[in-house]
Amino acid sequence: MTFEVLKDFEAETPSGTMTLKEGQRVRLSREEAIPLIQDGFLQPLERVAYRIYSEVLGCHLFIVETNQDMHSLRTQGVTEAIYTGDEIKKMKRLSKDSLKTIHDVKTVFKNSKVEEVE
User: Fold this and answer.
1) How far apart are CA 36 and CA 10, in angstroms?
2) pLDDT at residue 12, rounded to an integer
3) What is the distance between the alpha carbons of residues 81 and 37, in angstroms, rounded to a whole number?
4) Three-state secondary structure call for residue 1
5) Cβ(46)–Cβ(69) below 8 Å
6) pLDDT digits over 37-53, tens only?
């Protein structure tokens, strides 16, 4: 898949360390890209939905780019919790208990979204 670099970072490659610059486009596997997306270094150029298993929550969930992508998955019959990348960023520093509480809400209220985290 092709991704856009959102901010400069260094990556280890078989040839050594490489600096990727903001605005560059790179091709990576999903497995390589997921941690970089979660850390805000990359964004996919194609529309994607990641289905991941959360050890903290003990279940599968989806991560998408936009609310429109979330609604698209819902119309396809997806019943698992769906989070946008922005929601994930807002929740990064929360405790496990707080994450579980938010997940419970998203599981019951299928179209809910995380607006603000305190």
Assistant:
1) 11
2) 87
3) 19
4) coil
5) no
6) 889 999 888 777 889 99
